[in-house]
Design a protein that fits this description.
This protein has eight helices and seven strands. The chain is of the alpha+beta class. Strand 4 and strand 5 form a beta hairpin.
Length: 321
């Protein structure tokens, strides 16, 4: 109902803008015809007309943009409310069960496990919202340390497998060839958040079966690149950049069934760019999977202190990927 009303509002403003532009053109042409002999006045009229048209167009564009932004924020609030309410209700139900009737020890331990999982979900949602605010408000250049990407990614994979109760072969990391250590200067907490968000998205948007492949390699001798590829729902052609916008979620009935805040990939790109890198997405199409690529500058490019063989290995790995 709200979406229909907002679309009607957008259509109204666009129609109003078109009518105003048409009216302005009609009045301006009539004014020029009536004053065709006054060249100076005609020139001034044309200039004023151009300014009027530009103002009307800009006003319409900003109104429509603001309406869409409000729509995304409303969707975000609804998603966050659901993400907060669901685990709280679950924890409350388990506690009421434990309070009202006796349960055997095995069932009690299962309740404790479920409540811990719900509390982890609740904490993850809160941390994601807080992280989005922190990235936009303060400088994150401090406290950077030298990090080895491979063990960091492996640790994030282990957390994802445990969080979603997946078998070990559901998410696999291809080792870096030649035993190269891909080290970057960064904030461990932020990079962990970025990688976990990519992995969580890969799992969530693979509703039928989870097959996620992660690869680490070197590009252009000075960049560490992490690709995370799933075999899930994929992306329409016009969504590859939009999914990194704040609060944005891909429209569609299938996507709407998958809960989220619309902040995960926004955080990924924001963190990557604050580390001097970038994040991009690619997909062959709907139901053909998605690849998220995270690129970060190397702290110690191998070309300066190792022979050329590792670079050749990295190129071979890129061709396989």
């Amino acid at each position: 109902m709200n979406i229909t009303r907002r679309r009607g509002t957008i259509a109204f403003f666009i129609t109003l803008g078109v009518l105003l532009v048409g009216l302005a053109i009609t009045l301006n042409i009539g004014w020029i015809v009536l004053n065709e002999r006054a060249v100076a006045l005609a020139v001034v009229g044309v200039i004023l007309f151009a300014l009027l048209i530009a103002g009307v167009v800009l006003n319409t564009v900003f109104l429509v943009r603001e309406i869409r932004r409000n729509e995304r924020q409303d969707s975000f609030l609804n998603a966050v409310t659901h993400e907060l309410k669901t685990p709280i209700a679950s924890i409350r139900l388990y506690l009421e069960t434990l309070q009202r009737r006796p349960v055997d020890e095995a069932q009690r331990q299962q309740f404790y496990t479920n409540m811990l999982a719900d509390s982890d979900r609740l904490l993850a949602t809160v941390e994601q919202v807080l992280k989005a605010g922190q990235l936009g408000q303060r400088n994150r250049q401090q406290s950077r340390v030298l990090l080895d990407l491979e063990p960091l990614v492996a640790d994030c994979i282990a957390i994802t497998l445990q969080r979603h109760h997946l078998p070990k072969d559901a998410v696999v990391l291809t080792p870096v060839p030649g035993g190269i250590h891909l080290r970057v200067l960064g904030i461990a907490e932020d990079l962990r958040t970025a990688i976990l968000n990519i992995l969580d998205n890969a799992v969530k948007y693979s509703p039928d079966s989870v097959h996620v492949r992660c690869s680490l390699f070197i590009t252009h001798y000075t960049w560490a690149t992490l690709t995370i590829t799933d075999t899930g729902l994929g992306l329409p052609p016009n969504q590859h950049k939009r999914i990194f916008h704040r609060f944005y979620r891909v429209p569609g009935r299938t996507m709407l069934r998958i809960k989220g805040t619309g902040l995960g990939l926004f955080l990924v790109r924001a963190i990557a760019r604050q580390h001097g890198g970038n994040a991009t997405a690619s997909s062959p199409g709907l139901n053909q999977g998605t690849t998220i690529t995270l690129t970060l500058p190397l702290a110690n490019p191998p070309a300066t202190n190792t022979p050329a063989a590792p670079s050749e290995s990295s190129r071979q790995l890129q061709e396989k990927a």
